[in-house]
Amino acid sequence: MTDTNHGAPEAPVRESAVKTMTMAGAINAGLRAAMERDPKVLLLGEDIGQLGGVFRVTDGLHKDFGGDRVIDTPLAESGIVGTSIGMAMRGYRPVVEIQFDGFIFPAFNQITTQLAKMHYRSHGRIQLPVVIRVPFAGDIGAIEHHSESIEALFAHTAGLRICSPATPQDAFDMIQQSIFAPDPVLFLEPKARYWDKGDVDTDAVRTRLDDAAATADIGRARVARPGTDVTLVAYGPTVRTALQVADVAAGEGTSVEVIDLRSISPLDIPTVVRSAKRTGRVVVVHEAPTAHGVGAEIAARVGEEAFFHLKAPVMRVGGFHMPYPPSKFEHEFLPNLDRVLDAVDRLMAH
Amino acid sequence: MEALGPLSDNGLVRLLDADGTRVADPDWEPYAEHLTPEALRLAWRLMTLTRAFDAEATSLQRQGELGLWVSCLGQEAAQIGSGTAIREPDYVFPSYREHGVALTRSVDLPQMLTLFRGLEHGSWDPAQHSFHLYTLVIGAHTLHATGYAIAMDRDGLVASGNPDKDGAVVCYFGDGATSQGDVNESFVFAAVNNAPIVFFIQNNQFAISEPTTRQSRVTLAQRADGFGIPRVRVDGNDVIAVHAVTQWALRHARAGQGPVLIEAFTYRMAAHTTSDDATRYRTRADEEKWRQRDPIARLETYLDAIGELTQEYRDSVAAEAKALGKRTRETVKSWERPPMLEMFDHIYAEPHAQVEAERAWFDRYQQSFIDEGSHA
Ligand SMILES: Cc1ncc(C[n+]2csc(CCOP(=O)(O)OP(=O)(O)O)c2C)c(N)n1
Ligand SMILES: [Mg+2]
What we know:
The complex is a heterodimer. By secondary structure, chain A is of the alpha/beta class. In chain A, strand 2, helix 2 and strand 3 form a beta-alpha-beta unit. Chain A is globular. Chain B folds into two domains: 306 residues, Thiamin diphosphate (ThDP)-binding fold, Pyr/PP domains (Rossmann fold); 36 residues. In chain B, the strands form two sheets. Chain B has a five-stranded parallel sheet with strand order 1-2-3-7-6, with helices on both faces. Chain B has a two-stranded antiparallel ribbon with strand order 4-5. The interface between A and B is large, with 39 and 41 residues. Bound molecules: thiamine diphosphate (TPP) and magnesium ion.
């Protein structure tokens, strides 16, 4: 993967530093690197120790770093996040794993009323560099509460940064940058993409781990594929879908640009608007219900900043206003290839 | 095994020894007196059917017919022993592993699998069975159970003067769940409201991979003390003792004496779910040790010893178990996915503009494929 916009100084990539990894493997390697770099980095969560997490993202870390740094917590999410806040006050960098998206809610209070607000309330005296890793979104055929897209619920809360990698390279880089950035970060891992593979340069990020660089990088979108007719804005699990759409559309003579947002809070609006001004057509694709969602915010911002360049209204393709349905329905609930292509076709009619 | 912690034998009520010998315990005997050989045979039959169903569901998951299965293997005595002490108008709030209790509430077991096949989120009518839907968010239902119990009390279903008409709530949850804030809040609410509720903890020694020692330094029963809730710790693989303590707890709650907490100490013989790999966190030796304490075998040994388990009865239960397995298989394989539009149903009681707009859009969208297809 060479298409991340790190803006890092051109350093010659050493051959040995590039490895093929799954996204889960890349996060694992990123956690390991962060733990080696700073003894204050602690992992906390349910079943993350000997089991290595239900998705094996922390596999082997308990063995190598011990139970004092890879901590199997009691089964209580509010407790996990709340105690992480206390530890962060003493200079630790807790990295919390919430087992599944649908189980973050016992911690909603700690995250929204405490974690997100402490810096503001203390006039910047208290920094809480807590990272909350969440396997999120659907498409794995799971039962209830294991497929939720929770980003909009948290994006409404000031004080949190929210990002989601779509490639192993970004997963490796962004988990470390989230850990070393001074603000709390909700790190959303697209669980259906855990086993997607990609090349990972394990060296490049090392010079980008100070407060300012790390924060800047996790807030930046990237153009995952350039195009001229339609802009697809995606993040996390829908980036792959958007790239597939771009392939199919290319066969039909439509040139699709895919933007991988990477960051949900803040939104990298300049990158989206630049693209919108060129193509004049924008579709936002996310798994979360479209009503009151991230796509609505993007549509509004594009409308405000690129109105006279638009050839058609900004469209959204996403989940419906309903509880995540039983898994036999999820393919149609999700913004699948057909539904996104349908939106592209309708925009091209303008 | 630590001497006093949540994985110890500390204070376990036992009426049937691990080797199937009846133990005399004057304190608890009165609550087991009514267990005639016939009642015990029924318990053995229900445990055997639960296990057969569980095995069939596991195998259906392996064949790809179910997305997931959550086995209750090894917990049959805890579930059937308690479930058989429940009667109308009691009401049950299960977590998600209480298939044996479901059987005692006359839930049609094969039907339960719609949930695990990804067809619906709730598979039965709770009111019909006085058995609430499974709740997957750990501990959330303990508060619902407490509220339901408070309401039963307000509605005159407790200490009515006619003990046969009195009811209480039984709420099931696991050892891991005891760490959740919701569960601890439910203890507080139950205690201050003197709610007619029996908190039934199945301490199966694991919350996925974490042993109960990661949740508590003391037995889970001891948790109740600080809330002022009476408690009892029982050998969860002893169906007679489980039944007796549940009987006691329910009489206590139905009589208006308030909440009770039961900790049934048992063992999850299978992995957490079919997605889990238990070899990563526990030893074969440990599993083998607990296989020796199999709850069904224990009762079987006892019934055999007192000459109350004829070959004929065994054969008939075996045939029934086999038929249940076959019906489970056939039922599951016969299910078709309902029309996609049904996913828009039941989100609200009354029409909601957003939902109706999306339903209409989806209908047109689906239709466009059919139209396209008919042109081709
Ligand atoms: C709030 C919440 N957090 C995490 C989970 C994931 N999870 C499912 S089952 C489980 C362990 C539950 O252990 P226990 O309460 O002992 O019940 P058991 O599964 O052993 O019956 C966990 C952590 C969940 N379902 N809900
Ligand atoms: Mg358990």
